[in-house]
Amino acid sequence: TDAEVSTRKKTFTEVQTERLDQAERTVLIKCPSRLNEKKLLQYLSSHGNVKSHFFFENRGISALIEFSEKSSIASLQDAVGIPSASEHHVVPFKSRLFTFTLKNPVSQHVEQTPLHLSPQCHIPVKDLIQKLCLADSISSQMYILLNEYQLTEENIKLRFLACSLVRDFARAYFPDSTVKPFGSSVNTFGKLGSDVDMFLDFCDTGKRATEMKKGPFEMEYQMKRLPSERLATQRILSVIGDCLDNFGPGCTNVQKILNARCPLVKFSHQPTGFQCDLSVSNSIAIRSSELLYIYGCLDSRVRALVFTIRCWARVHGLTNSAPGTWITNFSLTMLVMFFLQKRSPPIIPTLDQLKELADDKDKHIIGGYDCSFVSDLRKIKPTKNTETLDVLLGEFFEYFGNFDFRKNSINLRKGKEVNKPESSPLYIWNPFEQDVNISKNVNQPQLEKFIAMARESAWILQKEDKTQQMINKEPWGLAALLIPFGKSNSSMMKNRMKGIGSETIRSLLDSLKLNNANSQQKAVGK
């Protein structure tokens, strides 16, 4: 029942379904500059009940309007006109994106109550550091960071709307298709300002199996056959990409990257302000999103630690938005998960333990890999571990500052180190495709830089005198770790590097100097 669902933590699929449904009842309006909120809502209500709305800044003021009934959108669309083609000719595609302007602006500037605007990006690191200095413990600093960076309810609605608007195009060709977000938009680890990864899904396959059993005939559609699934994916994305490029209101910089390992279309969606990556259904990526969703829901310390480590890594130039030999955010997140599995008692269960709790409806075999794990959060026993985030943060740096990366790899299925199957500097098993190393891109200098930074951070946390630093108004705790370790520290860094291969120390220290200049910029930029 609905009441029962609302009292417990919803499953990943329930949340997705609810949000996709919400997005179908939603429109986006570019508003006039002098807007009377009451008048706008009054007018919209003439088309049906407005269930929720918010305003945000995006080259002017925009409003996201969620109606209670889908039919209200058709009613509104009937009242909306096509732009007059004076200087430009228009592509007559009617979407759920509208521009409202006032008919007689002068008479309408009655009492002007300022609109509340929902922020769609997080504060710069330097502002964050000031906020952190006012907290009373590292633990509360970490929750402040989490609150500043995590996706808001409004931002999530906007992400699902972006997917829903792309789906309107896909449905012109494939009426049953859906477009769903995956990755950081849905796994509870998304940061304000991050891209939207979305995929096109044609998964109506299982639904009609019972219908098909009836009757004397085996019946199937005649469909175009192609030599490989990859080719089909490339053709579908190529056409949808052209469609967005030629007809999509506000879709700019459309790039078709069809020869990548996972073919995709990249584009900017100006009405929502998102950078989007569209690919075709990738079941394993969805399972990873759901696994992280489960870990993120189990204990509030999990997300606080992940957001903190990611922010720390970005400030010190350990991660980068450009692809390369850096550690990715996904790999970092997996390192945090592994660390939490290794605590005594463990804070989160291993993937094998989650698999043991799975029932029949949780069974997923994808491309020969067993991707089964429990979806109902109530079946997972809460942890008995009571360590504070203050302790966990220091221990994380301590643990990986001294981890034997030369010999061991990181396996989240078993929750323990296992011998490396091959010689990549950093080996993290893909939780589902058991023969894939998700950190294969990371080279030795980057790994050693991570180790050095972890040691340096562990050392800063151990030696610090919080009271003294607070009296001196110096950054302390997490705030001290989010300031690039400057040149004054480079002699300390050399000590910290003992036992690390000397051939990379020189290149490392150079890259540190180079990074200090850029890293604060990057941290602010992403």
From TrEMBL:
Stretches assigned to the RL domain: 11-79
Residue ranges occupied by any Poly(A) RNA polymerase mitochondrial-like central palm domain in the UniProt entry: 138-296
Alphabetized GO MF terms: metal ion binding; poly(A) RNA polymerase activity
One Pfam family it belongs to: PAP_assoc
GO cellular component, one term: mitochondrion
Gene Ontology biological process terms in this record: RNA 3'-end processing
Keyword Disulfide bond attributed: no
Protein name: PAPD1 protein
Species whose genome carries this gene: Orthonyx spaldingii (Chowchilla)
